[in-house]
Design goal:
Order of helices and strands: EHHEEHHEEEHEEH
Helix content: 25-40%
Distance between the termini: 30 Å
Low-confidence stretches: none
Number of strands: 8
Strand content: 15-25%
Number of domains: 1
């Protein structure tokens, strides 16, 4: 069985909102762990990714790809067949970077707040009414994750994936351009890559699998 990973590079600031506010600080806090590292929960990322996979299938080959999507990402009442589905990890920063900084928190060299502040900024947003005017009382301070950071999601699957499945995953990675909140405000623009572990190292195989997949779709079209 292969080892697969999705790499997500933030091209703009992003908001992985937790739904929580911090009095006298921010009106919307990001999701972060006990060390201050921002992350997106696996379920939330999977929802974003499933939308990208579905959109790719609808554009290229809706009838042919539906069964492939269900096999990869699951469907209601899968029951005993759920083992075939991909399990997503949380969308997190590089493990080695996290471990080095987490060690510094544990030994008292850094604090959770210092890590969070280094990786994020606070932005102020206002709402606009139907007339295009500032809506009084709508000013909100929101924590955003700095652009340029790279996040990773591991894909755990307990079977061999077919070339069609790998191609659909790779194409969806290339198709997915936004994650997180406030996309209409220019937040959460991303560049995603599909990585495969080869001889202990992850290599970018996005174009390899995507090109094979697209050739197959054209041949059958």
């Amino acid at each position: 069985m292969g080892k697969y990973r999705i790499k997500i590079k933030l091209l703009t600031e992003a908001i992985f909102g937790s739904g929580n506010s911090i009095p006298s600080s921010v009106d919307l806090e990001i999701t972060h762990d006990e060390y201050g590292f921002p992350f997106m929960k696996a379920k939330t990322f999977k929802g974003n990714f499933r939308k990208a996979v579905t959109n790719v299938a609808e554009l290229l080959s809706p009838g042919e790809c539906k069964a492939v999507i269900d096999n990869l990402l699951g469907k209601e009442n899968d029951g005993v067949n759920s083992w075939k589905n991909i399990r997503f990890t949380d969308c997190m920063l590089n493990e080695n970077v996290r471990e080095i900084l987490a060690f510094k928190v544990r030994n008292g060299t850094l604090t959770e707040s210092e890590i969070k502040e280094a990786l994020t900024d606070i932005r102020s947003f206002t709402s606009i009414d139907d007339n295009g005017s500032y809506e009084e009382g709508s000013l909100r301070d929101i924590r955003v994750i700095k652009k340029g950071l790279e996040f990773y999601v591991d894909l755990n699957v307990y079977r061999e994936l077919s070339e069609k499945e790998l191609g659909l995953l790779a194409t969806a990675c290339r198709y997915m351009k936004h994650i997180g909140s406030m996309k209409t405000r220019g937040k959460g623009e991303v560049d995603c890559s599909f990585l495969v572990c080869e001889e202990g190292k992850y290599a970018d195989k996005t174009d390899v699998f995507m090109n094979k997949f697209l050739k197959g779709v054209k041949a059958n079209g």
